[in-house]
């Protein structure tokens, strides 16, 4: 047998050339679905509860500032915790995996160990 018999036939269909314009993902003007709002409860050491409704992608700094303003506290004197882990103001509810109805603890900063 010659090499011509082993090579693919000229009659075999080739894959059509890809059109680069058609293969690009379409861009939509819709915003991501991450604008979902959740309800969070902030609880203080004396069991005071304050409820907030925020978007999952909003930095928690807004919630922290609003809580401190409502309670008449300085934000630097309060520590916010989620499941015992300190929350930094730049994080979002989505970053921390917070769900609707979750609780954030607000603890007064303690200086010293006596």
From TrEMBL:
Database matches in InterPro entries: Rad60/SUMO-like_dom, Ubiquitin-like_dom, Ubiquitin-like_domsf
GO molecular function: mitogen-activated protein kinase kinase binding; protein kinase activator activity; SUMO transferase activity
Name of the protein this chain belongs to: Ubiquitin-like domain-containing protein
Domain Ubiquitin-like: 36-113
Bias (Basic and acidic residues): 8-30
Region feature Disordered, mapped onto this chain: 1-36
PROSITE patterns from the UniProt entry: UBIQUITIN_2 (PS50053)
GO cellular component terms, A-Z: cell cortex; cytosol; nucleus
CDD domains in the record: Ubl_Smt3_like
Organism whose genome encodes this protein: Entamoeba dispar (strain ATCC PRA-260 / SAW760)
One GO BP: protein sumoylation
């Amino acid at each position: 047998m010659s090499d011509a018999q082993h090579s693919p036939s000229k009659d075999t269909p080739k894959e059509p050339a890809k059109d680069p314009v058609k293969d690009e993902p379409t861009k939509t003007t819709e915003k991501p679905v991450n604008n979902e709002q959740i309800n969070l409860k902030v609880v203080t050491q004396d069991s005071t509860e304050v409820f907030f409704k925020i978007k999952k992608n909003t930095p928690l700094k807004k919630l922290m500032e609003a809580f401190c303003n409502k309670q008449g506290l300085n934000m630097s004197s309060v520590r916010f915790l989620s499941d015992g882990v300190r929350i930094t103001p730049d994080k979002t509810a989505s970053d921390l995996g917070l769900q609707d109805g979750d609780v954030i603890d607000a603890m007064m900063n303690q200086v010293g160990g006596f």
